Amino acid sequence: MLPGVGFVVALLVLPFLSLVALSLLDWDLQRVSRTFVGLANYGAILRDGRLWESVGHTLLITAIAAPLELVLGLGLAQLISGQVRGRTWLVPLFVLPAIMSPIVVGYGWRMLWDTQYGPINHLLAAVLGRPVTIVWLAHPQTVYAALITTEVWQWTPFMFLALLAALASVDPELLEAASIDGASGWSAFWLVTLPLITPMMAVALVLRSLDLLKLFDTVFALTYGGPGTLTETLSLYVYILGFKNFRLGYTAAAAVLFLAGLSVLSTAIIRRMVEE
Q1: Is the dihedral of CA 255, 258, 261, 264 positive or negative?
Q2: CA-to-CA distance for 152 and 221, rounded, in angstroms?
Q3: Which of 25, 130, 132, 160 has its CA 20 to 30 A from that of 272?
Q4: SS3 state at 22
């Protein structure tokens, strides 16, 4: 076990301890000096209004995107479950967005949302019969719709794959028995299929929610937190603190608190799921 333990210590434990040590310093790359300040950085970051705003933005995106992805993924999985013609090429087609790099997806959709040349505005203009010049990524009323649509487009396939596997594990004899008892297709799905796949739905929803709490790539490529700081997520704010403002000690404290909060949340959710 020694090589594996050494690998974990080298890649996880030591960097985390270095991060904690850095968080105890007042270290700004724009200054030569660096001094030990103890927990002062943690106190300052907890009083940082912009930090709490970024937490709110992250939670808002997670609360909307994750359930949407779950519902759409379940619908797609139900649509092509069983013996569906063309399934062998439909499944890889549906999964394609999820295997693309998020930063590539972000920049690709940024071109689609472009006000002057983007296909989305041109398509809306063709449907409505008049010019459409919606500034999707710079207007407070449309930026979240654009951002969440992009995120849902890429990660609904993850839900689709997980729930397709769950639907495949449902015993067909149970559905046949429900049909013999007079249950309609919707009743059989609601009373038989859905309860059986609920554990997998919960796992998929938790995994995607935890991933969304770390959202960075899509926001970085689409809006860079704009307009203003309206879509700035927690991960993006930590990045700006460290790589734009060069406040290394302050950034390290924010990162430690972020990791601690995410670890506590993950542990609590997993423990709750195991107990149930």
Answers
A1: negative
A2: 15
A3: 160
A4: helix
Give 148-199 as a DSSP string.
Answer: HHHHHHHHHHHHHHHHHHHHHTS-HHHHHHHHHTT--HHHHIIIIIHHHHHH
The model's pTM is: 0.91
Determine the Cα–Cα distance for residues 84 and 97; give it in Å rounded to an integer. 21
DSSP result, 50-64: HHHHHHHHHHHHHHH
Q: pLDDT tens for residues 84-118?
A: 777 888 888 899 999 999 999 999 999 999 999 99
The CATH number that domain 2-275 falls under is: 1.10.3720.10
Which residue, chain included where needed, has tokens 């076990």?
A: 1
Distance CA 27, CA 250 (A): 8
The C-alpha angle with vertex 244 and arms to 241 and 248, in degrees rounded to 5, equals 45
Question: How far is it, in rounded angstroms, from Cα 69 to Cα 206?
Answer: 12
User: Which residue is it, tokens 């693309």?
Assistant: 100
164, with CB counted inside 10 A (0-12, 13-18, 19+), is buried
